[in-house]
Amino acid sequence: MKLHVSLPSGRCESFVVNQPAAVSDLKAAVCFLRLAAPNRTLLVQTDPVEICGLENEQCLTALALQPKVATTSAAMALWCVVGGPVVTWGERYFGADSSELQDQLRGVRQMCCTEAAFAALPEDTSVVTWGHVRLGGDRCELPHQRQNVLI
User: Fold this and answer.
1) Is the dihedral of CA 86, 88, 92, 94 positive or negative?
2) What is the CATH number assigned to the segment(s) 2-64?
């Protein structure tokens, strides 16, 4: 199925969606945007494309979402409250690597951080933490420092 998406910039992008697919598969190409069908209803990210009533060659409208940012002393996290991925970068030991947690980080409503760890509250009301273990995370520790031994 081929769909056209009108972007906030005024451009129109075309995407081919292979069936079966979810709206999130299409949305992955237009990160931090919410998609609206031609009848002006907002598409739910987890819905399969076929139940949304979309037809071949239809035009969707992409609405810009306000991204949120949280930072540790050496890493950043970017996400949108309405859904989509959590994007992290920076130093791994300060929470920059959230790649193993992406399935748990769906629909993050709120996030806070310490000097080297993040805590996120996804839509399922769980709490997901990552970053330095001694500073609130549960994913990694700083590499062992080499100690000098005097004889």
Assistant:
1) negative
2) 3.10.20.90
